[in-house]
Amino acid sequence: MTRTGRRIAYAVLAAVPIAVFAVFFVLPVSAMLERGLWPEGRFDPGAVLQVLARPRTGRVIWFTLWTSTVATTIAVLLGVPAAYVLHRLRFPGRGAVRAALLVPFVLPTVVVGLAVRELISTSGPLGFLGLDGTPAAIIIGLVFFNVAVVIRTVGVAWESLDRRPGEAASALGASPWQVFGTVTMPALRPAILSAASVVFLFCATAFGVVLVLGGVRYSSVETEIYLLTADLLDLPAAAALSLVQMLAVVVLLVVVGRLRAVPDPTVRRSTAAPVRPRTRDLPAVLVTVLTLAAVALPIGTLVAGSFRREGSWSLEHYRAMAGSADGLLQVSVADALEASLRIAVDATALSLTLGLIVAFVVTRRTRTRTGSRVRSVLDGFFMLPLGVSAVTLGFGFLIALDEPPLDLRASPLLVPVAQALVALPLVVRTLVPVLAGIDDRQRQAAASLGAGPVRAILTVDLAVVWRPLLAAAGFAFAVSLGEFGATSFIVRPAEPTLPVVIYRLLGHPGALNYGTAMAAAVVLATVTAAVILVVERLRVPGTGAW
């Protein structure tokens, strides 16, 4: 195939995910902003400025900024030492520990909020600290949810570092700390800054964690958008906050893109073998143990609470999952779990299809500066769901997709599509490093032996990418299973997902409702943990950063 033919083929291939993204992401988000910024068919920025001038809006933005900053700082301080221990040291059970620390990130946010809430409540193990109902509770939840991002991102970079510069510095008389400060840290700085930027992004757009732990007393930008749209129907105010949030997201994505560009397919990075722990590794090991305990304690408390009924051990909460919570739900909790699994399968299939196409296109070797820029723009374009409010997306679905020819509000496909868009960035981030690491000369060799473009891809690319593809499927399935923000707007009452059911149970008083919510959360967390354990076994060393 000629160079022009290849360009046309890549353009046609890229058009498929771009079209889906335009209809189901750009259009809903634009419709939400249009409804707020053009309330009567004409541009009215004055209303937006009035919203931004409100004292409550200022408090919401400030609360979001300082809690996200504190949570990000703590996550980095805990995650960097743990990344070293789990990706550079060799010890029994390393894979299990790494998978355990990864689980919180893919847990549904309502489950994370409920687990932390049970831990710090007056009857919980840490109830004596008086953290329930305080900003500290939200920060704990954000750190619990996001420390895995730092561990994975920095750990993957650490795995790929060449040991020889450090060994040379040691041979010249540098101490271990001097080697770390002058050789290792400069090499890791882009990964650390990238991880911190992504964590801050996730903290600033957190929904379920803040909603469950903050209630009506504390509100972030994300939960305020939910309140303004769902309860107050104040679309200009919601649009103003969405606009501020999206501008901040664009800035952060540009920063992250500069810190972690799409890997050049011609660059080969070495992977250092892990070593046994030494005496000087003890501080990092202690921090890792502390982090593991901090992750295990909320989950353990949640599991124990799900088996407690009126002060004694019981399976009553799990039996109640077969009912409809005294008419509160149209379906049983068990039916909601079945619906969640079915929807997650559909969402996973869609996100994998789109993600594989995107990863294939953005990792093609280009010889021009324009081609490289197009790759970077496409890669950043499909990362937008990481930072755009899920509430904005969900409400935008209701606004933009309610008239022919896109009258899809009653379609059962709407929820899987929304969840696939949320999972798409993780799929792309999992596959891009793998496809970018394939030497293009292998494809050329296959072509010289008579293989066509499709045959060359199947022979060369598929042989390398199948394990990461399965891992990406696991990530997408887990994320889809726990998606709450957008789903809460568009899910049909007769077929709610399990996270939506858990939140509804928490919103109604009663010990049985609360206990049933805990039991449902444990079931959801167990399924997620099982998927992540499989993903971790499929992970290829040196890949898998977000």
From TrEMBL:
Membrane topology: Multi-pass membrane protein
InterPro entries: MetI-like (IPR000515), MetI-like_sf (IPR035906)
Pfam families for this protein: BPD_transp_1 (PF00528)
The UniProt record lists the keyword Membrane: yes
CDD domains per the UniProt record, alphabetical: TM_PBP2 (cd06261)
Swiss-Prot/TrEMBL keywords: Cell inner membrane, Cell membrane, Membrane, Transmembrane, Transmembrane helix, Transport
Natural source organism: Nocardioides vastitatis
Name of the protein in its database record: ABC transporter permease
PROSITE patterns: ABC_TM1 (PS50928)
Family: Belongs to the binding-protein-dependent transport system permease family.
Membrane spanning residue stretches: 12-33, 60-84, 96-116, 136-158, 191-216, 236-261, 282-307, 343-362, 382-401, 413-436, 469-491, 511-535
Record-annotated ABC transmembrane type-1 domain positions: 61-256, 337-535
